Amino acid sequence: MLDVLVIGGGNAALCAALMAREAGASVLLLESAPPEWRGGNSQHTRNLRCMHDAPQDVLIEAYPEEEYWQDLLKVTGGLTNEHLARLTIRASSECRDWMRSHGVHFQPPLSGALHVARTNAFFMGGGKALVNAYYRSAEKLGVKIRYNAAVDRLDIRDGRFVAAHTGDERIEARSCVLAAGGFESNREWLREAWGQNADGEWPADNFLIRGTAFNKGVLLKHMLDEHHADSIGDATQAHMVAIDARSPMYDGGICTRIDCVSLGVVVNKQARRFYDEGEDFWPKRYAIWGRLVAQQPGQTGYSIIDAKAVGRFMPPVFPGVKADSLPELARKLGLDEITFMQTLNDYNAACRIGTFDHTALDDCHTEGVLPAKTHWARPLDTAPFYGYALKPGITFTYLGLKVNDSAAVHFGGQPSPNLFVAGEMMAGNVLGKGYTAGVGMSIGTAFGRIAGTQAAQAAIKSGVHLAAS
């Protein structure tokens, strides 16, 4: 009998498959996508947030455990399991050598506008290269891989995994790792979670999906509805980013993100500001803006900058709407000119200019205007002016399966002896809300490796038991 079945094909699934195989287990990995789309959202990633107490290979200075934890605590607002979060943080400090052993390469420290050379290790070639490296290594080690193999249901008896069904085929295994992603590409489930607003709109209809079209959440829903697995998280919470409204429905990836929010102002369709654009550094706070935009009329916002911001942020793939004056920009964006100018004039008059420094929490702020802008507040007064229409872009959802530090799925508070989960399907244990750059890969790598190791041990134990009997 097969030892370990891994369901999923992204970073967490691959880490699990590799660890299980290294532990001596026979492993079959089922990826729902075809080969050209393998890897789920991992193919769109770029980096891993890493704890380190001193300069290490591609990481500068230090990023100690407590600072990492405080960053995570801040963005989640306390909606996180500290024990599992710290487990993830510590694991992030010791996984790079293992990743290299499976063909992953890291690029030299970055500098400039991203400000993450200290906290994040970037993959050479991005997530696509990482996924390809892991698949090559898995194949070399003897992991069996099948594509176009979506799993829609499991056989589970008394909390113990028995078999999985893909199409008309039933696959038995001594243990199983679930790493099939969230439900972000399931429009019906998103509609159900977000409901209708007071205007009769379905906000989810205006969401774009930054990543894979294959994360339908079929297996997650099956586990929750049919097997009543213990859940964690809120169905409306997700890694949701403000992206260019012209982005494709799926797989737009990093290039669709609009990174100039902190350098200007953001207004809604009514031409009014609605949140502090300078709350914190962009790599820590960029992921709140998708949800903020989702709460605006028509799930639309507009990021407005002037010429002073150009060159200080990663340019998106689409050029912004350009104008020689603010009234002209309002007209081009289809915003009410009078309200727009009142908003911008109020903001400009409220700016208290100190020493502008986008690499630090500077003293440029507003006074006498709501919402305040607490850092990097400078008047928008230098032509040309640019505007970017924004829509919410979902990367992955946070509703998932509750786990312990062995990555075991729980039923009625009891951990399964042979069913484990990793990646997006359990990220809500660490991410109740919010996001900070690179932490998704940290969670997937940490719990993928744990799940693979535990699954191999469970399978070997089961095999010994069967042989003895």
TrEMBL record:
The keyword Flavoprotein applies. Keywords: FAD, Flavoprotein, Oxidoreductase. Its cofactor is FAD. The keyword Aminoacyl-tRNA synthetase does not apply. GO terms for molecular function: oxidoreductase activity. Residues 3-430 form the FAD-dependent oxidoreductase 2 FAD-binding domain. It holds the Pfam family FAD_binding_2. Signal peptide: none annotated. InterPro entries: CobZ, FAD-dep_OxRdtase_2_FAD-bd, FAD-oxidoreductase_2, FAD/NAD-bd_sf, Succ_DH/fumarate_Rdtase_cat_sf. PANTHER family: FAD-DEPENDENT OXIDOREDUCTASE 2 FAD BINDING DOMAIN-CONTAINING PROTEIN, FUMARATE REDUCTASE. This is Tricarballylate dehydrogenase. It comes from Polaromonas eurypsychrophila.
